[in-house]
């Protein structure tokens, strides 16, 4: 008789006990060692188990029966999924008075939750057919258990499986109970074996290869595994610098110095393993060398900027020390090599530059030394400094471009290279004045404080100087009139704490760029030469004057009468100082024109000639040209001094 109240109660009783059993298993599972033993896949398997049987029928509520044995054969498709055919033979005396021993045939699907672990829970589900009762019965099974690997082929298991049988009177010949079906079950333990063994996991031995290498050196690494590891085995390398490689043996070249964790992961069907080796990359032992050292001119004037350049080679860190032969202290460039913000790049070769202005005439020996921890090198060049032509024409020129311009200093926040709005306004005013004066050059010296790596500070000072250069170029000062250099860090102590930020770890007074305006006659002379070549018609013949081939003279004006030329010559003499002034002549004009010209010279240096010519052109309203003598002339001097 079917009752509507709780029609599935016997099933719930069985399931509740099975779930309690499964919960105990899951709580026990974390205590089991996680050895990397992988179950076999794509293989046949067999199971055999025994234990008590259970029943819940219209005759008895949840009875534990004497015995139950079962067997199963199947195919393990993947590590997690398998299908099998099972048979259970059990005694159920509480379920029936007459037919107590029954056979259950099952088609079983099994899901293994953690096949990579030694111990793992699993679930069973599928249809079943029970024979031997009062009538044949069909239904479904549901169960769970835990499987524990003993070897790569064999395991033991604990299992709790319930069978729901239909119709209700097939097992106990009664249908007057509380449910529309009867329940049978198996609680027990057993063994399981596969036809094929699970693959043997790969185990790595230590990585073989050098732990200390030089930057730029090609090195080889390999690794060995356990001999019984199941093939195929795949090797994946991480060289520690972002490079990935594959294979049992790899080669790699590190281009940055530092320490790199080299790792290799080997994997097969049985699992994977990883080995790591720390590799220290150092700079090659390459002594410092100077391959080239030069100046843009070996003859200059006081207050004229001379640009020096050199090409260095050697292992980083590489320092360059400049000594200019006067009383000034040496200029030291620490870490004079390339730098990447993310990592230190060792030096292979590098061009360096310096600009210098001499205040006094004389002959100076400029020495450049290159040093690193493996050696040093030194080169020298000699420069001759003459008195500035602006001293000769001091009373002539009132050009504001010769007025001294104060030095601008821009300060920066910690670890920053951005210019503040106030400093930008000041720089723009200076840049506008420089843009209007072609005889002025700008030297930008960038610095950092001592906080942080030396190489990083070198790059930071360079970026700060570059930021100031951008302001000058935006105001119209061409890049060829700017000498920019970052000098790296300045050592403590801090000379002034007033510019420090809150909790400043460094020194605000040292984080700066000095903008220094200097005078240079070379750009001015070049610009005037271009104007003369395009705008001023030159006579067909050289101006007559005494002199040697290759010397320079200045021709000023033209006079029809000799006396007028003498008067002009005397006026020019008065405007020149008596020291280092060129000789003034009055000579006949060339054969294509009558009259006379005033000639200054000859002079050996075109820069001096053009500077004097420019000053005279501003003071005297007359045409003036600078000429180079193409051959010696022996014309008689009419007047001179």
From TrEMBL:
<dbReference type="InterPro" id="IPR013783">
    <property type="entry name" value="Ig-like_fold"/>
</dbReference>
<keyword id="KW-0472">Membrane</keyword>
<dbReference type="InterPro" id="IPR006664">
    <property type="entry name" value="OMP_bac"/>
</dbReference>
<feature type="domain" description="SPOR">
    <location>
        <begin position="546"/>
        <end position="629"/>
    </location>
</feature>
<dbReference type="GO" id="GO:0006811">
    <property type="term" value="P:monoatomic ion transport"/>
</dbReference>
<dbReference type="InterPro" id="IPR035986">
    <property type="entry name" value="PKD_dom_sf"/>
</dbReference>
<keyword id="KW-0812">Transmembrane</keyword>
<dbReference type="Pfam" id="PF00801">
    <property type="entry name" value="PKD"/>
</dbReference>
<feature type="domain" description="PKD">
    <location>
        <begin position="225"/>
        <end position="288"/>
    </location>
</feature>
<dbReference type="GO" id="GO:0046930">
    <property type="term" value="C:pore complex"/>
</dbReference>
<dbReference type="InterPro" id="IPR011250">
    <property type="entry name" value="OMP/PagP_B-barrel"/>
</dbReference>
<protein>
    <recommendedName>
        <fullName>Cell envelope biogenesis protein OmpA</fullName>
    </recommendedName>
</protein>
<dbReference type="GO" id="GO:0042834">
    <property type="term" value="F:peptidoglycan binding"/>
</dbReference>
<dbReference type="InterPro" id="IPR007730">
    <property type="entry name" value="SPOR-like_dom"/>
</dbReference>
<dbReference type="InterPro" id="IPR022409">
    <property type="entry name" value="PKD/Chitinase_dom"/>
</dbReference>
<dbReference type="InterPro" id="IPR000601">
    <property type="entry name" value="PKD_dom"/>
</dbReference>
<dbReference type="InterPro" id="IPR036737">
    <property type="entry name" value="OmpA-like_sf"/>
</dbReference>
<feature type="domain" description="OmpA-like">
    <location>
        <begin position="399"/>
        <end position="521"/>
    </location>
</feature>
<dbReference type="Pfam" id="PF00691">
    <property type="entry name" value="OmpA"/>
</dbReference>
<keyword id="KW-0813">Transport</keyword>
<dbReference type="GO" id="GO:0015288">
    <property type="term" value="F:porin activity"/>
</dbReference>
<keyword id="KW-0406">Ion transport</keyword>
<dbReference type="InterPro" id="IPR006665">
    <property type="entry name" value="OmpA-like"/>
</dbReference>
<dbReference type="GO" id="GO:0009279">
    <property type="term" value="C:cell outer membrane"/>
</dbReference>
<keyword id="KW-0998">Cell outer membrane</keyword>
<dbReference type="InterPro" id="IPR050330">
    <property type="entry name" value="Bact_OuterMem_StrucFunc"/>
</dbReference>
<feature type="domain" description="PKD">
    <location>
        <begin position="289"/>
        <end position="392"/>
    </location>
</feature>
<keyword id="KW-1134">Transmembrane beta strand</keyword>
<keyword id="KW-0626">Porin</keyword>
């Amino acid at each position: 008789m079917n009752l509507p109240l709780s029609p599935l109660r016997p099933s719930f009783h069985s399931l509740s006990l099975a779930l309690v059993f499964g919960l105990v298993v899951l709580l026990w599972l974390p205590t089991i060692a996680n050895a990397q033993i992988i179950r076999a896949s794509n293989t046949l398997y067999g199971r055999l188990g025994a234990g008590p049987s259970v029943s819940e029928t219209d005759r008895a509520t949840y009875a534990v029966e004497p015995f139950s044995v079962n067997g199963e054969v199947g195919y393990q498709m993947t590590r997690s999924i398998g299908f099998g055919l099972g048979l259970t033979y059990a005694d159920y005396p509480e379920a029936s008075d007459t037919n107590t021993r029954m056979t259950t045939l099952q088609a079983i699907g099994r899901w293994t939750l953690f096949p990579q672990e030694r111990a793992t829970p699993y679930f069973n589900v599928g249809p079943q057919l029970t024979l031997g009762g009062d009538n044949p019965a069909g239904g479904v099974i549901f169960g769970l258990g835990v499987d524990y690997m003993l070897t790569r082929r064999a395991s033991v298991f604990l299992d709790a499986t319930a069978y729901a049988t239909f119709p209700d009177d097939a097992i106990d010949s009664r249908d007057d109970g509380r449910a529309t079906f009867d329940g049978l079950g198996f609680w027990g333990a057993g063994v399981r074996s596969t036809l094929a063994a699970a693959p043997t996991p790969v185990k790595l031995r230590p990585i073989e290869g050098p732990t200390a290498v030089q930057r730029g050196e090609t090195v080889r690494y390999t690794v060995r595994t356990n001999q019984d590891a199941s093939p195929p085995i795949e090797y994946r390398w991480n060289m520690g610098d972002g490079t990935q490689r594959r294979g049992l043996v790899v080669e790699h070249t590190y281009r940055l110095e530092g320490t790199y964790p080299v790792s290799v992961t080997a994997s097969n069907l049985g699992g994977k393993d990883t080995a790591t080796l720390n590799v220290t990359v150092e700079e090659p032992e390459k002594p410092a060398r100077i391959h080239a050292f030069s100046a843009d001119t070996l003859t200059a004037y006081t207050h004229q900027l001379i640009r020096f350049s050199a090409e260095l080679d050697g292992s980083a860190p590489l320092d360059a020390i400049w000594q200019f032969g006067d009383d000034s202290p040496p200029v030291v460039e620490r870490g004079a090599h390339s730098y990447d913000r993310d990592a230190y790049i060792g030096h292979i070769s590098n061009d360096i530059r310096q600009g210098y202005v001499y205040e006094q005439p004389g002959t100076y020996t400029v020495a450049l030394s290159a040093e690193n921890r493996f050696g040093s090198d030194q080169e020298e060049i000699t420069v001759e400094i003459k008195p500035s032509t602006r001293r000769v024409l001091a009373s002539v020129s009132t050009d504001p471009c010769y007025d001294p311009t104060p030095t601008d200093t821009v300060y920066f926040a910690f670890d920053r290279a951005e210019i503040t709005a106030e400093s930008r306004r000041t720089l723009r005013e200076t840049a506008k004045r420089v843009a209007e004066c072609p005889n002025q050059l700008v030297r930008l010296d960038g610095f950092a404080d001592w906080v942080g790596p030396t190489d990083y500070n070198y790059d930071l000072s360079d970026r700060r100087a570059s930021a100031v250069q951008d302001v000058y170029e935006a105001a119209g000062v061409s890049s060829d009139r700017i000498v920019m250099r970052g000098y790296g860090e300045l050592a403590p102590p801090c000379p002034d704490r007033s510019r420090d930020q809150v909790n400043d770890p460094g020194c605000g007074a040292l984080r700066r760029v000095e903008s220094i305006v200097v005078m240079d006659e070379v750009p001015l002379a070049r610009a005037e030469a271009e104007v003369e070549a395009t705008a001023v018609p030159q006579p067909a013949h050289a101006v007559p004057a005494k002199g040697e081939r290759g010397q320079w003279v200045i021709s000023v004006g033209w006079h029809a009468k000799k006396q007028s030329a003498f008067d002009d010559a005397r006026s020019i003499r008065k405007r020149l100082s008596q020291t280092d002034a060129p000789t003034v002549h009055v000579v006949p004009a060339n054969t294509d024109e009558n009259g006379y010209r005033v000639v200054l010279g000859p002079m050996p240096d075109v820069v001096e000639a053009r500077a004097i010519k420019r000053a005279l052109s501003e003071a005297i309203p007359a045409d003036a040209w600078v000429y180079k003598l193409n051959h010696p002339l022996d014309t008689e001097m009419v007047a001179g001094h």
